[in-house]
Amino acid sequence: MDNLTEDERTLVDCLAGMDEAQALPLANRLLLEERHDPLRVLELCRHAMDIVGRRFEEGEYFLPELVLAGEMLEQVGAIAKPLVKAGEGGEAKALGKVLIGTVQGDLHDIGKNIVTFMLDINGFEVKDIGVDVPVPTFVEEIKAYRPDVVALSGFLTLAYDAMKDTIAACDAAGLRDQMRIMIGGGQVDEMVRAYTGADAFGVNAVEAVNLCKRWLGAAA
User: Fold this and answer.
1) Is residue 113 part of a domain?
2) How many CB atoms lie within 10 A of CB 24?
3) What is the pLDDT of residues 132-182, one digit of tens each?
4) Half-sphere exposure (CA, 13 Å, Cβ side) for 144?
5) Which residues of 126-137 are buried (b: 16+ CB within 10 A; e: fewer)?
6) Distance (Å, whole) CA 52 – CA 155
7) I want to staple 8 with a disulfide (CB 3.0 to 4.6 A). Which of 4, 34, 107, 209 is the partner?
8) Residues 120 and 200 in one domain
9) Contacts of 190 (CB under 8 A, 6+ apart)
């Protein structure tokens, strides 16, 4: 990100550096006292989470750091989300329904949580069914929830087979033509998309939101 103020740079550094004691009060001040644009603060959080993700991939951070980063994001989001909706004039009709979950064999949830949050504040009705979700559970949830979009998350390479199996099960259950399916997480790319049979892949939460908006006819 370019053109950060000193406070914005400090917030990113503290979030990425696991400095919870400084990050959360600063986020509170920016949002509640100085009335910063909540979407701007959320974008700063996303940037910090990108840094966390890179450090994890490089072996500098481990699972405890990922958990703490997710907890900090949730706390900032709990303050920012109502401010976003208040600025938009309150609750509005949902743009569409999205079912999201991390596929079987994978316990990573930070990326999923960021996507869930960003979809929510952008006007989608989102149901998050958690991590390590078995294929039959996805099928049952899709039948019950009737989503417009299904988002399959997975950080590990072993998740690709689970994504493929989940999509194949949706096809076998006669559900495949009723929704769009996107995948994301880890090193997902066009080759993985083709392997799994998904409609598209997203490399970050903003791309996931734009995909949903494009599919459901909203302005991206």
Assistant:
1) yes
2) 18
3) 999 999 999 999 999 999 999 998 888 999 999 999 999 999 999 999 999
4) 8
5) bebbebebbbee
6) 14
7) 4
8) yes
9) 201
